[in-house]
């Protein structure tokens, strides 16, 4: 007697205009990529497959999901490539295996660098767009990695790790 496994269709969520967050399965959803206007997939992994959709480029950020991996060294060129794709009229899908920690960190860095948001505001935007996936990614990022991200990309960085937000705050609050 066999059992059938139900598999959810690959999806990704809009974090901000022209910026999507997803998992590795989403990169293989050719029709969904094309319908969403995605021209660049940022693959934040060493092992996950890239997109196969025509007209969709891949930028691989070769890091494992390990807090000791130095994601920071990849952020400047990665965010610059993302911005170039957006300025050319495209959109970006940022993904890793599960669409949480590494990809959420890259989305946060992009929002800080090219949209001029503080770390806290970038998190709020991401969490309001992508919801639990983004929040889960934030929770799984180490405080050390987030503090380094702040210092490298933020306009205002926290003075202590306790200044980093744990969860989204009310977007109506002034930053």
TrEMBL record:
Residues 1-26 form the signal peptide. It comes from the Eukaryota. The keyword Transcription does not apply. SUPFAM superfamilies: (Phosphotyrosine protein) phosphatases II. GO terms for cellular component: cytoplasm. InterPro entries: Dual-sp_phosphatase_cat-dom (IPR000340), Dual_spec_Phospatases (IPR052103), Prot-tyrosine_phosphatase-like (IPR029021), TYR_PHOSPHATASE_DUAL_dom (IPR020422). Residues 11-152 form the Tyrosine-protein phosphatase domain. GO terms for molecular function: protein serine/threonine phosphatase activity; protein tyrosine phosphatase activity. Keywords: Hydrolase, Protein phosphatase, Signal. Pfam families: DSPc. Belongs to the protein-tyrosine phosphatase family. Non-receptor class dual specificity subfamily. This is Dual specificity phosphatase 28. It comes from Marmota marmota marmota (Alpine marmot).
């Amino acid at each position: 007697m066999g059992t059938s496994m139900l598999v959810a269709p690959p999806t990704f969520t809009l974090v901000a205009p022209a910026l999507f967050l997803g998992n590795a399965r989403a990169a293989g959803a050719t029709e969904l990529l094309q319908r969403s206007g995605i021209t660049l997939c940022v693959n934040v992994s060493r092992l996950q497959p890239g997109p196969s959709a025509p007209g969709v480029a891949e930028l691989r950020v070769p890091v494992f999901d390990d807090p000791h991996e130095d994601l920071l060294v990849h952020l400047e060129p990665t965010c610059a490539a993302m911005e170039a794709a957006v300025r050319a009229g495209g959109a970006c899908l940022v993904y890793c295996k599960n669409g949480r920690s590494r990809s959420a960190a890259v989305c946060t860095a992009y929002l800080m660098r090219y949209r001029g948001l503080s770390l806290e505001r970038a998190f709020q935007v991401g969490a309001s767009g992508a919801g639990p996936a983004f929040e889960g990614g934030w929770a799984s990022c180490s405080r050390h990695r987030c503090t380094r991200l702040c210092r490298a990309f933020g306009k205002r960085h926290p003075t202590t790790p306790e200044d980093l937000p744990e969860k989204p705050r009310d977007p109506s609050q002034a930053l």
